[in-house]
Amino acid sequence: MTQLREKLQDLAALPEDRPMGMPGAFYTSQEQFEHEANTVLRNGWHCLGRLDELAEPGDFFTVQLLNEPLLVVRGDDDKVRVLANVCRHRGMPLAEGKGNQKRFICTYHAWMYGRDGALLRAPRMENAGFDPKSCRLPEHNVQVWNGFIYVNLSPDAAPFSYPDLEQMLAPYETDKFRVVHSAEEEWQTNWKCLVENFMEGYHLSVVHPQTLHGYTPSGLARKLVSGDGYTSYAANYPENIESRGDGAPGLSDAEKQRSSLFSIFPTQVVSQAASLLVSLSIFPINANLIRVKWTMSVYGDDLSDDTIQQRVKLWEEVNREDREKLEKMQVTLRSAHALEGPLAADDYEGTIRDFQTWLAKQDAAFSTAQYA
Ligand code: FES
Ligand SMILES: [Fe+2]
Fold first, then answer.
1. Are 175 and 277 in contact (CB under 8 A)?
2. Residue 369: which pLDDT band, with cuts at 50, 70 and 90?
3. Number of DSSP helices (H) and strands (E) in the chain, helices first
4. Which end of the chain is more exposed for a tag (fewer CB within 10 A), N or C?
């Protein structure tokens, strides 16, 4: 694994005009995965979903991020919290799936918690050392950004801000989009493979000839803003294609004639179009397995119900096409011959290079600091 970490530093240091991708082991080694889980993943900001998935007080959903079961819930004070979904008595999960609850009652010995994680009742507890106040559910750091909910498992996490990306997204009014669909599935791939796949335009025409090529051919992909923690590119539509929905009033013609794809590292990838917003949250399980939660959101009443259903079907198909490739590749990446390979030009695969640079920088920081 030390070799892989050194390789990452070496490749990230290559001249800009000769970028190389990482060898297969980077994506298949379980030891490498454990290292990432303890460093870049445990300390990163992860998107869990959209704020309007939790519209009312008491609305909640649960999710597993690395070893942490999470209960994401809107409180009576309207605040969205990410609580440990672990009973303070003997560790049962408190909630499953999603729904709305006034109280969360443990199914094991019926301890009862409020929507803010406070322990409200513990039947028959007689123990001189028992202090209900000290039995709150622990709360993780949360950030809301552009209508997305993010969590960071590190207690010392600083909030993120990406001014260039925020400026790029401002005309779309990303925070105003309302969620119309959400789904979860497991893919047999490495978490980094999906980030890279979603963020490069090089494969669009080859992997998606029927679904995407007509709208977003590979040849029109252009790199957009990037920075420490994110990257983006434009999947431009050909001139003869009508823009799909008007979107926000401040959008320029160029912004309407493309999908702006961005990634908030380490695990969120997003496609922002005028009227449609698709976001994938990646939950890494092991080196070869992820859980993917994706949401589709729309701008105002731009799209009819029929059109929304068509878009859901289209994205299901697009995801299926990507998944098929990535699951096949996850097998061949184990080969001794899965060596580092040259990356395509900036407009096509510069985003992969951005991700690599960021991973290398993060890893270097961990080796000098807490993870020596
Ligand atoms: S484990 Fe929850 S009440 Fe006992
Ligand atoms: Fe794809």
1. no
2. low
3. 9, 17
4. C
Question: In whole angstroms, what is the distance from residue 308 CA to residue 173 CA?
Answer: 19
Ligand 1 centre distance from Cα of residue 104 (Å): 11
Q: Are 290 and 283 in contact (CB under 8 A)?
A: yes
Q: Using a 6 Å cutoff on CB, does residue 119 contact ligand 1? A: no
Residue 105 CB–ligand 1 contact under 6 Å: no
pTM above 0.85, yes or no: yes
DSSP secondary structure string for all residues of 103-163: SEE-TTT--EE-TTS-EEE-TT---TT--GGGGPPPEEEEEEETTEEEEES-TTPPPP--H
User: How many CA within 13 A on the CB side of residue 53?
Assistant: 25
**Whose C-alpha lies nearest to ligand 1, atom 1?**
90
Confidence at residue 244, expressed as pLDDT on a 0 to 100 scale? 74
Q: Give the number of the atom of ligand 1 that is nearest the alpha carbon of residue 106.
A: 2
Mutate to test the pocket of ligand 1, among 85, 88, 109 (most ligand atoms within 8 A of CB): 109
Residues measured by CB to lie within 5 Å of ligand 2, the ion: 322
Q: Answer whether residue 238 shows pLDDT above 60.
A: yes
Please state the atom number of ligand 1 nearest to the C-alpha of residue 87. 2
Q: How far out from the chain centre does Cα 254 lie?
A: 26
